[in-house]
Design a protein that fits this description.
Length: 163
């Protein structure tokens, strides 16, 4: 399953109302289906979008998202896998970008981080959160920067399908 970026906050109420889809996505991830979610897809997998009240979403990741009046992040990033994952082995390096007007609550420490993020050669943090076979991040990966990550994801999906 691939959940790309987008603007779930604009459609949070409609997405929240689609309980059959939420249930199917949650069940697929709980079953171990490989899933990759970035930015808006990641937001969709959180507890929900908080304005005055929480509009609940899929709830795989135990944090809520809130929208900000100004842009929170913009720029290119280097992503180094610090653990083996659905995108390849530890040490794999890819490029991506970050662009969002939202922020999440602090992710609990027990949620595994698989990315070391670098900006202009300097480490700026860890991200790339894993739950079962689901990997989610604010980063929009550029699969052309490291085609091996696409190959690894497809291979992981093939193995899952044939198990």
């Amino acid at each position: 399953m691939y959940l790309p970026g987008g603007y779930p906050e604009l459609f949070a109420e409609r997405l929240s109302a689609n309980q059959s889809l939420i249930g199917e996505i949650r069940a697929a991830i709980e079953s171990g289906m490989p899933a990759y979610a970035e930015c808006g897809g990641f937001i969709y997998l959180t507890q929900g979008v908080r304005d005055q009240v929480l509009t609940p979403l899929v709830g795989i990741f135990p944090v809520a998202t809130r929208m900000l009046p100004r842009r929170k992040a913009l720029g290119y990033r280097e992503v180094v896998l610090i653990g083996d994952s659905i995108l390849g082995p530890a040490g794999t390096v890819a490029r991506g970008h970050e662009f969002h007007y939202s922020e999440m609550e602090e992710m609990p420490h027990e949620v595994e981080r698989l990315y070391q993020l670098r900006k202009n050669g300097s480490v700026i943090g860890a991200e790339g959160y894993r739950y079962r076979n689901c990997l989610a991040s604010y980063q929009h990966l550029h699969f052309g920067s490291c085609p091996e990550i696409a190959d690894a994801f497809v291979k992981t999906c093939f193995i899952y399908k044939n198990d």
